[in-house]
Specification:
The complex is a heterodimer of chains A (about 675) and B (about 300). By secondary structure, chain A is of the alpha/beta class. In chain A, strand 7 (about 185), helix 8 (about 195-210) and strand 8 form a beta-alpha-beta unit. Helices cover about 70% and strands about 0% of the residues of chain B. Classes of the chains: A alpha/beta (about 675), B mainly alpha (about 300).
């Protein structure tokens, strides 16, 4: 670390800051309450919390920026001793982007699509660099190498859309570094990136913080990412700092009930149990009352908690915790205790896929007439697996691996190029959903990734649930209403939701409605397409619990698609790993996550982050994103860290079987 | 396969209520709606309140300035300008009031069909629509009107036909947006029939765009109708009409400006009113409304 120009005070100092907006009734509703936080040079501090906890608002306030409608109620933020909310516009503009830089969540969208990368970075230099403009060209290359982009000279000439998501994020980081900032604010910088890409970006940020000595504020909902990058962590809840301390204090044995609940709700690779859900939901702005904001969800709350708001008090350990019962907090467990897998599975087949190949490329009429042969490579190829009644199969892989494509084909939304889908070991299902009969349709239901998209915003919850009930069972009138309420109870929502619109529900509640809609059909098989990735971790844990309950009650099979290996592990009996639409490995969960696995599985597992400051991910392969599978040989040939030679490029890998259905497609013989 | 009516009805009414409140709390909506309603009421009661018969000529008082007898003066034939201005909107409002819903309906249906059909068919048909839109509207309409005559029975279908074409674009775009969304895919995967998907999933989401588009089309249509009258192809004299009045009075504008000004104020206040209401309606129905965070 460069300690040569160490200033005396903190770089950013937040002093008793409260921010709020005027509600419909006219009073001010706080979104941040009495935040005090110092960020020193060379320090990286993580702000964690679920959506709505105020973490992004706090990060933006550190730049002296408030979203429209928000107002400072009291307190101030200072950057290097300058009070940000009393600066004029010109001063703020000179600080922002230069000495205090922000890296937003979706940097692909924040880059100008019509400007070459070099020109965009030069623009940042023009605004914030004191160097003469002749040096900019060289400085751009220097910045691009600093963020470890391969071949910076060619990247300069490219447009944003020619880069992958991870590369775009690196360019955004390079632009932020252009002004040689003293502090860097990162707002969910790796959310939406693939696991391996995320792991690489985090390593880069770690090294940058160490080499440049700048202060970093890292906003994220992902405790794994925070653990990797931050020295100190502040856990935010309902606009307050609930717990603040060193990464080890907060992530190992936190002394606040919410932080413990949050930690327990994260699925971990090291833990075979389902994560523990955190019931209830945080108070709305202004709804926290006079007591502790967490009181309604807290396992150890007592009378005093609803009467008076605890202070953020210094603990003997050095952490600061906003809790009345710090002495009792360690009773709250940090791990889940519900083991999955212990279910009796019947031998009945629920679903079988045979030699499934899917392509998005349709040969045009002209090339068909001309008798031209189709030379395109199918997006998905050679998919074979069977699923027993009541069994859960996890499908994992990075984005573009064809996971969702396979689900769409099973559902009949996307006809395959060849191969067949059969249910109950019977005859193959018609490939188009329109040709399937009512029973075939009813037996397979699908739940989509984002409930905002999959629930019609114009229909009430009652109307949404009525659709499958009237379609498959012809229910109407009183019987329909009764069944709807029963379904709502089953997903723990309650009958009073029947007249609400989706927009009046939280993300988790909406996804429960989507689950209820799927189960309304009394299906044998439910296809789950990344159904928890749009949800907060505590909500995700609750949805996973719900899915586990339902499959126990109804003996339903799931095909569970996710990019999150820990989530898949928590729920699945068997796991299939996909790369570029080809199977790499399939087998019982324990075996796939065990010692012998496909090199790609190893790469994926190595990149998974654990919410533990001492955990180091193993990065073996590059994070280059491939857009199309190779025409021959092993699909993973170009990125494989264990490549054995030419054979990988030319010959399709053989299947290595090691009993109990564990299969690996690889040339390496020892597998 | 109708969804239960028990919890459908009250919601729809409640939603209309909230949309109405959302319109009138906005300044643009309050002003616009007041203007539109004032015009509609005036058009209804005009025959009973006008001080003179609008055809009554007075050769001794030609192009008179405002007086206590003729508040807005008289025109070149000595007819009362106030009476003619108050009566001048009736025909325009009637014709466009019928033609607008017709235009939205046929344009909306065709647009939804194009949007659903997609692919090559949609591409080809949309180019035809584009070609139609690229012709100046007044030319297209004059051709029809000259061929079939200028009666109301020709004007309404003509306006409805030509003003339905831009609606196709809007309906198609809105349909494209909705069809790609997961709730339509979910309905397909469940195996609902095409009709059910259109009625339950598509229409409620396209309807808002069509409503706003209808309001905008109405104001354009009024302008077109007045322009036709101005050119002598709309209302036949002596029926008063704003466009016709402006055409008649424009030669005398320099010494009797009220003859042009009064119908102009009438026409523009109605069009501005409709536009302001359409703006407020669009905001009240706003696409982001459905996704607003639960607070």
């Amino acid at each position: 670390m460069t300690h040569s120009t160490m200033p005396t005070g903190p770089v950013i100092s937040v002093d008793n800051l409260s921010i709020g907006f005027r509600g419909k009734a006219g009073h001010m509703l706080p979104v941040l309450r009495n935040i005090s936080l110092d960020v020193h040079q060379g320090e990286s501090i993580g702000l964690v919390g679920e959506s709505g906890s105020g973490k992004s608002t706090l990060a933006l306030a550190m730049m002296g920026y408030l979203k429209t409608g928000l107002r400072v109620l009291n307190g101030d933020v200072s950057f290097e001793g300058q009070k940000m909310f009393s600066q004029n516009r010109a001063t703020l503009e000179s600080i922002r982007g230069g000495r205090l830089a922000l890296i937003p969540q979706n940097s692909g969208q924040s880059l100008t699509p019509t400007l070459r990368i070099g020109a965009q970075i030069q623009e940042a230099l023009k605004l914030h660099s004191a160097q003469p403009s002749e040096t900019f060209g060289a400085r751009v290359i220097e910045l691009l190498s600093q963020v470890r982009l391969p071949d910076p000279a060619s990247i300069v000439e490219r447009f944003p859309h020619e880069l992958s998501g991870g590369q775009q994020q690196r360019v955004a980081i390079a632009m932020a570094l252009a002004g040689e900032p003293e502090a860097l604010l990162l707002d969910e910088p790796t959310t939406g990136l693939d696991v391996t890409t995320q792991a690489h970006i985090l390593e880069l940020l770690r090294d940058l913080a160490r080499d440049t000595g700048m202060a970093m504020v890292y906003v994220s909902h992902d405790l794994g990412a925070i653990a990797r990058v931050c020295d100190r962590v502040a856990v935010m809840y309902a606009g307050e700092v609930a717990l603040e301390g060193s990464a080890r204090q907060v992530l190992r044995d936190p002394s606040h009930p919410y932080a413990r609940g949050l930690l327990a709700s994260i699925p971990k690779l090291s833990d075979i149990c389902l994560p523990r859900a955190l019931d209830g939901r945080p108070p709305t702005p202004g709804g926290a009352g006079q007591g502790c904001a967490f009181v309604s969800r807290c396992a150890i709350a007592s009378d005093v908690c609803s009467r008076s708001r605890p202070d953020l008090a210094l603990q003997p350990s050095g952490a600061r915790s906003r809790c009345h019962h710090v002495d009792k907090v360690h009773e709250i467990p940090l791990f889940g205790d519900r083991e999955v897998g212990k279910r009796a599975l019947s031998d009945e087949t629920s679903l079988s896929l045979k030699d499934l190949a899917i392509s998005y490329v349709r040969p045009s009429l002209w090339s068909k007439l001309a008798g031209r042969e189709d030379t395109s490579v199918a997006t998905v190829e050679g998919i074979n697996f069977a699923l027993r009644r009541g069994e859960t199969l996890g499908l994992v892989g990075e984005s573009g691996s064809g996971k969702s494509t396979i689900l769409k084909t099973i559902a009949g939304l996307l006809p395959p190029l060849s191969g067949e889908v059969a249910a109950h070991g019977g005859a193959p299902l018609p490939s188009k959903v329109e040709k399937r009969d009512s029973t075939e349709l009813r037996q397979i239901q699908m739940i989509f990734q984002n409930p905002d998209e999959s629930l019609n915003p114009r229909q009430t919850i009652g109307q949404i649930l009525a659709q499958p009930l009237t379609l498959y069972f012809g229910l109407s009138g009183q019987a329909l209403t009764e069944k709807t309420i029963q379904l709502l109870d089953q997903v723990r929502l309650g009958g009073h939701y029947i007249d609400r619109l989706p927009s009046q529900l939280s993300g988790g509640e909406k996804q429960r409605v989507a689950v209820a809609r799927a189960f309304a059909a009394e299906p044998d098989l439910v296809l789950c397409d990344e159904i928890t990735s749009a949800l907060d971790v505590s909500v995700q844990a609750a949805v996973l619990e719900l899915l586990d309950d339902l499959r126990r009650q109804k003996n339903t099979s799931y095909v569970f698609v996710s990019h999150d290996l820990a989530v898949v592990r928590a729920l699945s009996d068997r796991v299939a790993v996909l790369y570029q639409g080809r199977l790499c490995e399939i087998g019982p969960t324990r075996a796939v996550y065990g010692a012998t696995s496909h090199p790609y599985t190893e790469v994926l597992l190595g990149a998974v982050l654990e919410p533990d400051p001492d955990f180091t991910p193993e990065l073996s392969a590059s994070d280059v994103v491939e857009l199309a599978p190779p025409t021959q040989g092993c699909p993973f040939q170009r990125r494989c860290p264990k490549r054995i030679g030419n054979i990988c490029d030319t010959v399709a890998p053989p299947i290595r079987e090691s009993g109990n259905g564990h299969m690996i497609w690889c040339h390496i013989e020892e597998l | 396969m109708t969804p239960s009516t028990t919890f459908q009805r009250p919601r729809r009414i409640a939603r209309l209520g909230t949309v109405f409140v959302d319109i009138i709390v906005r300044p643009s909506g309050a002003i616009g709606l007041t203007l539109v309603i004032a015009h509609l009421v005036l058009a209804l009661i005009a025959p009973f309140v006008v001080p003179y018969d609008f055809t009554e000529m007075n050769a001794t008082l030609v192009m008179a300035p405002p007086s206590s007898l003729h508040l807005l003066g008289t025109d070149h034939l000595g007819r009362d300008t106030l009476a003619r201005t108050l009566m001048g909107g009736r025909e325009a409002i009637l014709v466009t009031g019928i033609a607008t819903p017709l235009a939205v309906m046929w344009g909306g249906l065709v647009g939804i069909f194009f949007g659903l059909a997609g692919g090559k068919l949609d591409e080809v048909l949309m180019r035809i629509v584009d070609a139609f839109l690229s012709l100046p509207w007044i030319l297209k309409m004059l051709v029809l009107i000259v061929t079939f005559g200028t009666g109301i029975e020709v004007l309404i279908p003509t306006l409805a036909f030509f003003y339905g074409i831009p609606v196709i674009r809007i309906a198609r775009a809105a349909t494209h947006d909705v069809v790609a969304r997961d709730f339509v895919q979910a309905a397909r995967a469940r195996g609902h029939s095409k009709i059910t998907i259109i009625r339950q999933e598509l229409l409620p989401n396209v309807r808002d765009a069509l409503l706003v588009e209808g309001a905008m089309r109405w104001s354009w249509m009024l302008l077109a109708f007045s322009s036709l009258s101005f050119l002598g192809f709309g209302v036949s004299p002596p029926t008063p009409d704003w466009g016709l009045m402006i055409a008649d009075a424009r030669g005398f504008m320099s010494f009797s400006p009220l003859g042009v000004l009064a119908p102009m104020v009438g026409l523009s206040s109605l069009i501005i009113g409709i536009n302001l209401t359409a703006d407020a309606l669009a905001k009240a129905l706003g696409i982001d409304r459905a996704q607003k965070a639960p607070v």
